[in-house]
Amino acid sequence: MKKTPSVDSASAFIDRRIGELGGWRGKTLAKVRTIIRAADPEIVEEWKWENPVWSHAGIICTGETYKKAVKMTFAKGAALQDQAGLFTSSLGGNIRRAIDIREGQKVNEAALKDLIQAAVLLNITAKSKPKPKPASGRRAG
To answer: 40 is in which domain, residue-wise?
Structure first.
């Protein structure tokens, strides 16, 4: 069974992934990481499913890398307002949304930072809501 790395080692895994990728994908993943950290200093870096994961009160997004794209998948992206139109992938799903960043594509840093902050707020708000009580199975009357 694989153990989940500690926060320190998760950051080291992410550093290593950026270094291994090199080129435009490594630079893009490093840039995305910098924007995420600037958006929320309390973000926690994790390493899950062989990918970087950023969390605060739950998963915010993952940073997957493919041959033609660096993909940021937002765990609750469908619940977020995306006025800047950053989401480009997984648009038909009920929960997740993703941003595919391709070689040479400029990242709208301000809009991405806003989206990350909105995702953090959504997670914090969801955690603070009381859970509904299960139905008892009895009917009144």
So the answer is: 7-124
- Cβ 55 vs Cβ 63: under 8 Å: no
Write the DSSP symbol of residue 75: T
Any domain includes 25 = yes
Residue 130 falls inside a structural domain: no
The two tokens of residue 16 are: 């290593």
Q: What is the tens place of the pLDDT at every residue in 57-112?
A: 999 999 999 999 999 999 999 999 999 999 998 777 789 999 999 999 999 999 99
Instruction: State the sign of the Cα–Cα–Cα–Cα dihedral 113, 118, 122, 125.
Output: positive
Nearest residue to 72 via CA among 108, 126, 125, 41:
108
* Residue 75: inside a domain: yes
- Give the C-alpha separation, 52 to 7, whole Å: 11
